[in-house]
C-alpha cells in the first residue's frame, strides 16, 4: 500500500510538473508576446526569439538589402586619421573650405539643414568625403565636389574643420533623464544605445559628433538609413538600428541632439 501511494504521488508530481511547464511555455511564448503593442504573430520561431529577448533575424533577405552594394564603404578607419594635423594642413583646408560655406557656413556652422562641421572628428570628415568621392554615399552636390578632391585635399579639409572653435556642448553622458533609445537602446529590437558609439559612454572611431546638429538633417539621415537609401555604414550598423525605429522615435532622437546646441546657435 505504501509503495502504491508513493507511485501515485510520483505520477501526480510528474503530471503537475508537465502541466506547469506547458503553462509556462504558453505564458512566455504566446500570452506575454501577444499583449505587446507591436506584436505580430509570424510563427513559433519569432515567438521563441521574442521571449528570449533576441531578434528573430539580424538582417533581411539573407543578410543583404535588395540592391545594396556588396561593400558599404571602401574606407578603412585607422587611428592615424584622428591625430592632430599640422598648421599647414589647416591653412590649406581653410582655402578649400571656401567652396563649402554656402551649405556648411563660414565657420562650419550650418544655417540650413546641412551638418555642422566645426569641431567634427577628423576621421568622420575624411570617411564621408571619400565615400562621396567613390559613390558609396550619394548626394548630387557633395558627390560632384568630392570627385575633384585628392586624398591630401580631403585630409586638409578635415584638419580645418576639426580646428574650428568647438560650437558643441559637452558630450552626452549617461543620465537617467536621457531618452531611452539614447541611453539604453532597445535590446528587444536590436537597437543599440546612441551613446555607445556617438559619445557619452564611448566614441567609436568614425562615429560623428551629433550634439547640436540640425534636427531635419538628423531626421533625414535616420530615414535614409531606415529605408536603405543611405548604405555607407559598415556592416549595416546604422541601418540595423534605424530600421525598427518608429517615426516618433526618429523625431524624438533628432530633437534631443538638436537641442544640445549652444544657446547662441539654437
From TrEMBL:
**Which segments constitute the Cytochrome c domain?**
88-165, 180-261
Keywords of this entry:
Electron transport, Heme, Iron, Membrane, Metal-binding, Transmembrane, Transmembrane helix, Transport
Q: Does the keyword Electron transport apply?
A: yes
Task: Kindly list the residue ranges recorded as spanning the membrane.
Answer: 9-32
Q: Which domain of life is it from?
A: Bacteria
Q: What is this protein called?
A: C-type cytochrome
What's the source species' lineage?
A: Bacteria, Pseudomonadati, Pseudomonadota, Betaproteobacteria, Burkholderiales
